[in-house]
Every structure is written in structure tokens, then in C-alpha cells.
Amino acid sequence: MIVKSKTKPLILRQMEALLNRIPDNHSKRKLIEEDFAKQMAGYKGEKSLEYHLSYLPEKESYVFHDLRLFNKQHFFQIDVLILTPFFLSILEVKNISGSLYFNSAYTQLVRRIEDKEEGFPDPVAQVKRQAFHLKCWLEEQNIPMPPIEPLAVIGNERSVIKFDPRDKMNLHLVIPPAEIPSKINYFRNRYKTEAHTNRQLKKLISKLTISHTPLLSKILQRYQISPAELKQGVQCHKCTSFPMIRLHGRWSCPACNQLSKDAHIQSLQEYSFLISQSISNAQAKKFLQVESRDSVKRLLQSISLKTIGTKRGTKYLLDFFADNPDSL
Ligand SMILES: [Zn+2]
């Protein structure tokens, strides 16, 4: 069964918000669009794994997508974790097209398209490192250590994969998505004794779920864009223009006359993705382009946001995430 499904990653939602707010003629726009297309392709590739994962035995496999766990001083990220009573398997998923050459001596994956060569981190080395981190994490949880099987999944089925002939060890760790069920079945036949009781397994599932900490990137910093460069104001859902005007307790679009009661919610969500997860009255006044301090207060209170601080120092927490990302 799927415990944690593949959802649109935060970084993609942040990039969508950024592309919505950055002016059309901004010098960084093209770069952001290109990065967005790459991220989207990766997401679609991982999403397509769900079909192959659906062939796993429903009752004894628990699947987690995109787990980010903290081990002592560092976070580590697992694309897919398959938990069974007998063993654990972790998958590193790559969607790289072209002719791929694994050079484990240099822990590098070299991609060749036509005459152009490009280096990527070796997914086998990456997934082995995650297995090591996961082992350390499990040790801390006081749960018996199961066997851990790392695998690198090359999602692009048209990729041609080549290995250094001296490097036979890693050959069986790189598989196409369609081979996941048979590989898991192979491990199942290999490990005949249960590593966990039912109770331990449930405890582990709950610990993994609670411990997941999604990353909210400092996306404006990454592209060196200041908040002032973004389009300010509330966007009209109908014609997408900025800004709507606050009139008689409603939002009104000067371009198409559309009225809205809640158009500010999307703006506050975008603010939380791009700028900060908390907002003061003065900041909201500026970002939503509302003149009255009182109507901003009413707007923020109407969506019952938690607050910190008092009086003029009050900040409203913009808690729009399904789970708790670490702070900006
Ligand atoms: Zn409009």
C-alpha cells in the first residue's frame, strides 16, 4: 500500500508561484522557465513509477515517496522507500536520457547525447549513501535493523546504459522501472525471516511519517531576485491580471470586472512560498495592496491564521502546507 504518495514537490509549487509573480520581461524569467521544465520532467518521471509500484504485493509492502529525514547533523532524501516485514529497499530515481556510462571509480555518471558529454553524480553511489544514512537513522529509533537493499532506477526507458567492464558489482543495482516488482520479489525470496513484528512495523511506519521534514527552498535567494521585483497585489482568477481592488468587502478586477471574496488566499500562499511563512499587517498591506490597516486585519483574521507577537509586532503564520517544512 502507498503510505506517502507522490505529490507535487514544494519546489515546483514555489517555482509556479515565482513564474506567476515575476514580470514577463524580467531577465531571469527564461532561466526559471528552463529549470521549471527540468523539475517538471523529473516529477512526471517519478509519478510514472506509481504504475510499476502498484504491482507490489499490497499487504506486505508499504511505499513512501519523497522522504526527507534528519540524521544527526544532516538531512537526507529518499525518492522511494519500500518497507516490508522482511527487508527495506530504497530507490534513487533518475530521468536522464541519452547514452549513460557508469564510472564508479569516479562516482560519476556520464551522459552522451550526439557528441556532447555531461557528468552527473553516480546514482548508485548516491543511493548507497542514503542506505548508510537510513541505517544510522534506524539505529537511533531503537527498532531492529532490517536488511537494506539500495537500487538506482533509470526512468527513461530509451536510455542506453553502459558500465565499466571492471565494475560488475554495481550492475545489478541499476534497473528500469518495469523491473521493480520482480526485483522486490527476488529480495522477498532471499530474506525468509521477518525482520520486524507487526507492531514494530507499525511503529516504524508512524516514525517515518512523523519524521518527514519537507524542504522549503529560499527560492528568491537562489535566483537573486528581491521581493520588490515581484508583481504586487491580488491576482484575478478569471483574467489573471494584477492587482484586484478591495471594494466593499470584496475583490474587484478593474480589467474584467470579476468579483471575488477569497482571491487574497492565493496571494498569501504565494507570499509563503516565495518570501516568508509569516506576515505582519504592514507587509500584508503592501503585498495585497490594501490601504486600510483594519481591512487587512479582518482579512488575515478571517482565514483564522495562528499569530505570534502582540500589537504592532503581531505576525500571522502562513501555514499552507500539508506537513511541516523547516523554516525559511
Ligand atoms: Zn480579471
Spans of at least 5 consecutive residues with low confidence: 322-328
As for the number of domains, it is 2
| Strand and helix order | EHHEEEEEEHEEEHHHEEEHEHHEE
Q: State which percent range the strand residues make up.
A: 15-25%
Count all strands and give the number: 16
Bound compounds, please?
A: zinc ion
State the secondary-structure class.
alpha/beta
Please give a quick description of this structure:
The protein is of the alpha/beta class. The chain contains 9 helices and 16 strands. The chain folds into 2 domains: 2-211, no CATH class; 231-317, Arc Repressor Mutant, subunit A (Orthogonal Bundle), CATH 1.10.10.
Describe this structure in words.
The chain has 328 residues and is of the alpha/beta class. The chain has 2 domains: 2-211, no CATH class; 231-317, Arc Repressor Mutant, subunit A (Orthogonal Bundle), CATH 1.10.10. It has 9 helices and 16 strands. It has helices spanning 10-21, 29-53, 123-141, 180-190, 198-211, 219-222, 264-274, 281-288, 293-302; strands spanning 2-4, 62-71, 74-83, 88-94, 99-103, 108-113, 116-121, 148-154, 160-163, 174-175, 245-247, 250-252, 259-260, 278-280, 307-308, 315-317. The strands form 4 sheets. It has a 6-stranded mixed β-sheet, sandwiched between helices. Strands 7-6-5-9 form a 4-stranded mixed β-sheet. Helix 1 runs antiparallel to helix 2 and helix 8 (281-288) crosses helix 9 (293-302). The radius of gyration is 24 Å and the shape is globular. The two termini are 33 Å apart. Mean pLDDT is 90; it is low at 322-328. The structure holds zinc ion. The site of zinc ion has 8 residues, from loops.
